[in-house]
Amino acid sequence: MSMDAEDQVVEPALGIDEDDDISIFQDIDQLQNHGINIADIKKLKQAGINTIKGIQMTTRKKLCNIKGISEAKMEKIKEASAKLAVTGFSTALEYAEKRRQVFKVSTGSQELDKLLGGGMESMAITEAFGEFRTGKTQISHTLCVTAQIPGNNGYSGGKVVFIDTENTFRPDRLKDIADRFNLDQSAVLDNVLYARAYTSEHQYELLDFVAAKFYEEPGVFKLLIVDSIMALFRVDFSGRGELADRQQKLAQLLSRLQKIAEEYNVSVFVTNQMTSDPGAGMSFQADPKKPIGGHILAHASTVRVSLRKGRGENRIAKIYDSPDLPENEATFAISTGGIIDAKE
User: Fold this and answer.
1) d(Cα 222, Cα 214) in Å, to the nearest integer?
2) At what angle do helices 136-146 and 171-180 cross, to 10 degrees?
3) pTM to 2 decimal places
4) Which tens digit of pLDDT belongs to each residue from 13-39?
5) Alpha helices for the chain (secondary structure H)
6) Is 281 helix (H, G, I), strand (E, B) or coil?
7) 15 burial type by CB count under 10 A (0-12 exposed, 13-18 middle, 19+ buried)
8) Among 2-6, 146-150, 224-228, 285-289, which stretch is predicted with the lowest mean pLDDT?
């Protein structure tokens, strides 16, 4: 009897959850009902495509490149997914309703949160760039902890994925930040999934694993951090001759990040480095430094924040580019417990 009762309790809860997630998430297994066999679905999953939206986000050419997917099969898969997908246009009102699922992850500093309109937004890429010691990695570490804490507007908290390209991730930092919020250190560390990327190709391949993880545990992960997004591209592609190739590969990585953000409703935070622009000395720019990655990165990031040093431990963040935030500045500080409001 108690087993039945338990089943009854679990079932409705799952039902509610699925309703919430339906607009984010349609399982690729549904293709079986439309004449696509399991073996082919498995091939798609191995290529990192786990949802109907994922098929929509993949070009025909790319689908045909998957081992075992012929052109005829690809057309059949596209046709079947088109029947299942919510395609085409919706009214701005319907879209506004969908945007209500967007949540914000706190940075640990109220001032910085206010600048970002509440925090790091989900279904979007937030990029922070600055010179060394401006707090990029400190923000990343703080977010690993704050993302786990339930917050404003019904934000439930969740797990974090951290992709590290420069070997800057330190679990001990997370312990200090967990202490600030009175959280259990082991539990906090257990909720952060960490990977070290060694090449720009490896960085891209890791995203297949990330997508699979987000798919296996829908709604559990809330934040994906890449610190730093450009470092490996700088190393793997050197000189002007390789620039076009670098930008193409970078575009693919960023497109993948944006799709993951939208498909699984997670917040994506990337850090970026600066370059001194050798041509800028010729013009009358006050500050010849700019973020690297060119226009491709500039267009891919939803919100771009520039960081610079202030006095002592203080840092100044400025909205560099955003579709809906005003150009403004905020001061925050770096402490043992991560990012905090600046002490005047």
Assistant:
1) 9
2) 60
3) 0.84
4) 333 333 344 445 688 888 888 888 899
5) 2-21, 38-46, 52-56, 60-65, 71-84, 92-99, 110-115, 136-146, 171-180, 185-190, 200-216, 231-236, 243-263, 294-300
6) helix
7) exposed
8) 2-6
